[in-house]
Amino acid sequence: MKKETAKTLRAFAIELVIYSVLVVAYFFLVLHFLGEGLQRIAQTHRYAYAGLAILLMIGQAVLLQTVTTLLLRLIRRAE
Amino acid sequence: MFFPISGAHISPIYLATIGFVIGILGGFFGVGGSFIAGPALRVVGLDWNFAVGTDLAHIVGKSVVAVRQHRAFGNVDLRLGLFMAIGTIAGAEVGAQLIQILKRAGNVNLVVSIVSIAVYLSISTFMIWESRKTLSQARLAGGTIKGAKAKDDPSAFKHVTSGIQALKMWPMIKLPASGVTISLWIILLVAFVGGFFSGFLGGGAGYIRMPSMVYVLGIPTHLAVGTDLFEIIISASYGTFTHAVKGNVDILIALVMHTGAAIGAQIGAISTQYFAGPKIRLAFVPLPLIGAAIVVYTLMTGHKL
Asked: Are B201 and B288 contacting, i.e. CB atoms less than 8 angstroms apart?
């Protein structure tokens, strides 16, 4: 049981490190390109911006969960 | 990092860390976490209107992650969540209207502050009494409370809950996922009250809805957490849309916060599997107290966190 917990914690720590690298890349690349376009839509098309905001949020949620699940599966398989 | 929509300069690491902490709380307790996110965004200089709207957008994403995780454990009652969303949205509108009336009367801050302190303290006091009593009863009976899979969630308040479930007011709704049959009107009333406080006091009011689902509707704690989060997706999406139309949402800040929340929400949701219902309810007690402390601080200093 303890061995299993230690294994899970190690896999989680590795996942966290890889995830952090991906997130930092995301900050600088994706948000940099999204910023101007979203600002323009926010100023000119409020309703489109509102709909887009929700879609982006849900899209990112599904994407990040898929990434973390995939990472954990890969790390577990490698061990 | 500069966020052009709100014109704010905020560290993305700070946002992701705040998101991570709120994600854990949300995944574990089924709350939105506005009482932390709002002040945390205000502290770094974000305007109040942007803090409220952006927090709602981030709650949508965090709840999607937590619900997917809870659903994998069978902790989401979709039927109940959909019924509750109707009552919540109606209640939120009435709560917001009452705020407008109080604003015109000129005493909105004092009334809202006193009501919120009373509500927060009542919830905490009641939950600490109930969960401790349930845990001690279980110990006296010689049994241990099973964690994760326990659908039969023990509660010292069960006799009242059973009485509420026995009220036969047509239409009666069967909730197979929760193992409960209850009048639709009671579901709508609970959701309406939660929504009312959400519109009246701000935030998602998960600190009211989650305990109400357990004590009034008789939903097992694990299912109440998952279902509340599902319901939050609908009500927070509605809130995000209306705030975004009014120009109160910086979606870039919400997206950055959510990078931390996504992983935090999964940890929170998975952690519920290791705790029994009464223990989750006992651990929930400090959350409304933090909310009360923030309101007392605001009243005493005049600074709105």
From this structure: no
